[in-house]
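Risk register update: the risk of archive-format incompatibility is retired. Evidence:
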Amino acid sequence: MQPTLLTYLATRDDARALRLGEQVGAVLFVSFCTAIAAQISIPLPFTPVPFTFQPMVVLVGAAALGARLGMASQIVYLALGIAGLPTFAASPELPQGAARLFGPTGGYLMAYPFAAFVAGWLAERGFDRRYLTAVFAMICGLALVFGGGVLWLTIASRPAIGVAAALRVGFLPFVLPDLLKLLVAAGVMPSLWWLTASRDR
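Archived output:
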């Protein structure tokens, strides 16, 4: 297992372990960034699922933190939203709070911790240090987000819709834009590693 960027930056000057306060601060920071990304939300007339930048923040944040802390950041994000804080994307149909998880976007939200874990796990194995492997790691995480979202749409929609309809409203409108965002976001971690290595020379 290789160090994540967070671990490397926190411990490169000495051999100490990453302190609890640093872990908590990093988790809260990524949770906050996820909540900010949710506010950049574009509703679409043909689907109940809005266009947001959250998945990219989830995946880049997890790559920086690693599997355990990345997953924790999204659990904290969901917990804050369930508690009623305005962390979820604006919705004309559902208020902030636990009810949001039972709405049409609930599957995407509940998939965030698992997507973060996978992206972080791959980062712990060095996938975030080169562009092509970072793309692969983020695609794996994004696939979980889409999988959770589409599956939930088939279960939670009233009236119930089939898989084909769920793909039509929850996957097809977003897959190309999200892949384009992913191709940009995948360059973040290799660039940060390159900058860090340059400073340490």
